Amino acid sequence: MNTEFIYKVFGYLVGGSLRNTVALVLLCTFATAERTTAQEPIIDNSIDSILPINLQEVIVISSYKKDLEHSAHAKPLSTLDEYLEASNKVSLIKRGAYAWEPMLNDMSTERLSVTIDGMRIFGACTDKMDPITSYVDVSNLSEVQILGGQQGAEHGTTIGGSIDMQLEKSNFNPTDWQAAIETGGEANNAARIIGGELNYSDEKFYVDTDIIYRKAENYVAGGGEEVAYSQYEKYNFSINGGVKISNSQKLLGSFIFDEARDIGYPALPMDVSLAQAFIGSISYLQDFFIGRLTDWETKLYANSITHIMDDSQRLDVPIRMDMPGWSDTYGFYSQSQLKHEDHRFLFKLDGFYNRSLAEMTMYPNNSEEREMFMLTWPDVRSINTGFYAEDVLSFENSYLKFSTRFAFQSFNVASEMGLNSLRIFYPDMEQRQTRILKSVAARYRIEGDNFQFTGGLSYGDRAPSVSEGFGFYLYNSFDNHDYIGNPDLKNESAIEVNASFVVPINELKIAMEGNYFHTLNFILGEVNPELSVMTIGADGVKVYKNLLYANLYNISLNATYQLSNAFSLSGNASYHRGTDQDGENLPFISPFTYASTLAYTQEKLIASFTVNGAADQVNFNPDFGEDRTDAYTIFSLAVGRNFKINEDKLYIKAGVENVFDTNYSTYTDWNNIPRMGRNFFAAITYSFN
Amino acid sequence: MKTIKTIIAVILLSISITSCSEEDKDPIIIDENPLAEYNLVTNVDANNHSIEIYSEQKDFTIGFNQLFIRIKDNDMDTYISNASIQWKPVMHMTEMMHSCPKSDVTKTENATVYTGYVVFQMPGNSEEYWDLELEYTANGQVYNAIEKINVKAPLDGKRRVNSFVGEDDSRYVMAMMPFQPEIAVNDFEIMVFKMENMMNFPVVKNHKIVLDPRMPGMGNHGSPNNEDLVFDVGSGLYKGKLSLTMSGYWKLNLILVDENAAIIKGETITSDNESSSLFFEIEF
Predict the structure, then answer these.
(1) The pTM is what?
(2) Are residues B184 and A319, on separate chains, in Cβ contact within 8 Å?
(3) Nearest CA in chain B to A426
(4) Fewer beta carbons under 10 A from the terminal one: N or C of chain B?
(5) Whole-angstrom Cα distance, residue A82 to residue A655?
């Protein structure tokens, strides 16, 4: 057996006392290292195929082919959130340094389909402090696929699009044994990262395992102010493997365990003592199926999430409370393809069952009084069964794609107590309800000699989320209101138009794209002045309502210019706008943003200089706690270097983010918590034969 | 095969016969206490009778008490059926005596069991005490009995009765009907009596009670969709709806309003006034 071990070594765990000196030490290491001339993998400096060719985006996290993992990103071993943030399409709502909530087309969790390898998972936190992206890590992902609007309907019902995180798999490549250890560090928040993996793969069998551990202290904002309660600690373990039953039949399995503890949320009044996920799946793949159907894939999956929100670390709270939540999901999908002449069909049947339960216990300051208790998610059992079909029609230099999804979604409020509490607001509320969901989309793409055009038109709808439909006094610290769900909400539906246009002019490539969502029955919280607040100090109570409609549009312009063989310049600017039927601004709509990167890419040396920023947030909505967020411009630098030492490979990367230690916050920063100030980071990867 | 079937049949038959005969053997338990689920709060020995008084609660407690009475003939060792009973609870205070609101004593479906309610507005103490005067007719003969009873304040100290002087200078007694509070919209009932004199407390009719439940332990927040209590002629109760959005300690603030919409007692809750002077308390 040809056993080959590849170690990826990064030599230092950054300690809090060593802040700011670490980067210098690492840079010295880098400067004195010996130059070599052997071939290195070409490291993609940009993290994704930035140009919005398919109105979609793929964020490369690690590729099997690259034995230097995570090097695709400007900051290797950074959190998945930072990978996502570097993307053009995804923005992230930040409540702290951990578990940022992804937004796509200015829409967040309830309007998106977020999946891991096609598996539906739902966070267990009523306050959206545990988006699904927080339960995986870059160590076990190969890429993140982002699809806008109804393009994302393949994975589930959506309005804004889908984010599918794909697990990294050896996938029967004859690589035999592989092992790696990797570590990294950051100066600003004394983040230490250590991980390792052990993989075996041959043509009949493979198994991949990896583990990663992260710990960070409070970070320091620009100007030197420490942001209290911004620490976190997490580890993630995953194993996945496969067996080839025959040349055309495969059995795969995967399991992820993720646990985070002591996570601070500086923007919120509570922290999280435990966020834990068990995520598992088994799938069966077969090249052929019934008749002319091919590529049959069936997956069964289950996941269980526990999220314990508490305020025991906070010194001064009006009342102590615990808010645990649980979310369990069991699901399946089965899909197959059919190729016939110019057509390529995909048929997919899928379903899931989710149970969401969350409760709140408040401990009165008067110890004589009994504790107070309520169900904030009343044990809601959701069942969704759907059918998805698409047909891609290929022509000479263009294609046409039709896709549709049809689904039944039912809700059952299983807790008697929960049902009774909701019936305080809705006396005639039924215990069960069923909704029919549908989606249709058409897309056309043409590739001319000197242009590329893609256009699409689609319609889709979604059921309310558990919080929107059945939440009970969920406190939102951003607009300082308690939220009450509304089981009578109508489905929200959106008509979406999108187009993109790419023109290469010699070394310059320009891409423009835009999309427009006309959302009917847009679900949003509306103040009900008659209701009494539950949370001490809250300004009022909002109840979810269907607005008549809301309009959202996003326009972006991208350009890359190859200055020379080594130098390239890329830029991106985008504008977003969202208004309701009365012309009022929707919350969490990005102001004008821009980013530009000057990159130097040589065989051994890569360097980048990045500027990004935003204009003043002019269109904000104070009713949702927003204020005018000031413009900012941030500069970052990163340098990476490959070495060859005998047969071994060494990759060092170091950089500075927010070079000028600017104090700023963006429109996505919950309660305007400032972002991280100047931050030195470094990573070394050492792999040897 | 046939034999097996026969054997099974025989076995089955014998089982059923045995079970039948067991039932037959069991006599109807006439001695079973129909009030076993209640608490015996006092036993008055008088006239060679044992007068057993049962309550839904463990003791005579201030507030509403649903009481059940049985009279045992000690000689015959039987319970007296179809008696007619009158009662009068009297509070012996240091300087005066008074009674409290009460219903008539009526017969129940079980001819040996009688029931009625008493609303005690104060507990007894070392100097002041309640006694219960009973006058009953059994087999055409009138008997009298009197017994000192121990009326206690509820163990949880929560207020379930109000005795007050209204804006109209009349004295009132107001009691919350017992109920098991739940996180839900609860049926909520109150009795209101006017103290006509020391011994008479007729039911007050056709007033209205404004309800505003609050949680003082949590910013004094309220709850939605409560219904003020209105008088129900049939039951003589004020009935309304009480929404409880969570478990814990609730203060049920009240305003008693007469038929001319004049406030008799109670104040509206504002940011400066966290509580009405007229309220009940629950904790669950």
Answers:
(1) 0.85
(2) no
(3) B225
(4) N
(5) 15
